[in-house]
Amino acid sequence: MKLLFDLFPVVLFVVAYFLSDIYVATGALILATLVQVVWLKVRDGTVPKIHLVTLALLLFFGGLTILLQDPLFIKWKPTIVNWLFAAGFLVVPLFGGKTLPERMMGSNVALREEQWKRLNLAWILFFILLGILNLAVAFNFSEVTWVNFKLFGLMGLTVLFALGQGFYIVRHTQESAD
Question: pTM of the predicted model, to two decimals?
């Protein structure tokens, strides 16, 4: 259910794009993300920082897209978000020593320090690569191809990568237990 909630704005973007154009789709994406943030605030009393950062970037890049009637800005947004994720994974260990994956899963997963570091590095490289792939598709293929890639390509790659990380964790958790 959470996955559907998180995907709602992107799915709405794609649907609006195919029903109208990039500008209507961008407006729908902004509105859906705003509704999502308000819903989280009402339901939980708080909004995760990632949602607020995503909304801020979307308001900026999406707003420029609509205001200037130039899809270039919305095409850059996924790259900026992914590179910010990479920066987050890179910087977090500087404050308290633990990597972001260890902070999120450390109470449930037993890995050695070097395994947490490898896991963290893999996420950093993955997010950098996603940003580069987004730009490659955005500027070398048609707009329709980019819109499809935004939903299916970026999401599919993320799911596959997360599954791979799951296998890595299971394998190394079993090694740590031996």
Answer: 0.87
